[in-house]
Amino acid sequence: MKSKIFLALAIVSLGAYSCVSPKKLEEAEAKYxxxxxxxxxxxxxxxxxxxxxxxxxxxxEKAGDKTKSLQSTIDDLNKQVEFxxxxxxxxxxxxxxxxxVTGAQAESIKKxxxxxxxxxxxxxxxxxxxxxxxxxxxNLVMNxxxxxxxxxxxxxxxxxxxxxxxxxxxxxLLFKSxxxxxxxxxxxxxxxxxxxxxxxxxxxxxxxxHTDSKQLISSGSTLEDNWDLSVKRAxxxxxxxxxxxxxxxxxxxxxxxxxxxxxxxxxxxxxxxKNRRTRIVxxxxxxxxxxxxxxx
Length: 296
Known about the structure:
Layout: H1 2-96, H2 103-148, E1 156-161, E2 164-170, H3 184-198, E3 205-210, H4 226-243, E4 252-258, H5 269-275, E5 277-282, H6 286-294
Parallel strand pairs: 3-4
Antiparallel strand pairs: 1-2, 2-5, 3-5
Helix pairs in contact: 1-2, 2-3
């Protein structure tokens, strides 16, 4: 009798197992499909971010080359002005000893003086335009520092380097370790920065995510590596500025820089903390700068 009962239980268990296994297989296949789709989407975002980084880098290099060219032009014009002044002083000195100045000589002198005046005005215009650009950048830096106020320089740093404004925000103010979800403290910091950016609607900027060199420890996360983490953090900041603070998305670019642009060696906990940061880069307004030059 007992053997018959055991046999019956075994048959029931076998039947239940045969019903459950295909369902679990379908769930696993569906989960695999979702993960595969998410991976393809992240790869596409990564390629877009790389293209945006390359474009921004190219724009910054063009701005630097244009500044060098303008300075060289100013130096050449100054040399020409000095030469013309010296030459005309010699001519005028010689004319003092002459009792008569012909009409042709007088016209030549007048044209030379007019050329000197035109070159002086052009040089002053170039210098004024460059000074105005630098003044706008410094005003933006002062506004950002004033808005940030009581935050430590170690946590957030605003500076101008080669005519470009940078805002570096420490990782600990924005994200938890290995995560791309912002903290409540991050909303306070971003709110202060967004207030200044909103007041300058003509400014475009790029949000860069930076990590240290430590590799991610996989624990069920969909993140692949530090490239993935840096891109996701940048897009999280951009999305927050757009959705929470109303910044026009056309003004923003999100980019991931991974671990490859450190500000310190990744040889200690303190240095790695410095490298984990989000950087906001105020992009050079090349079009506006060149329009100012065209009016001169």
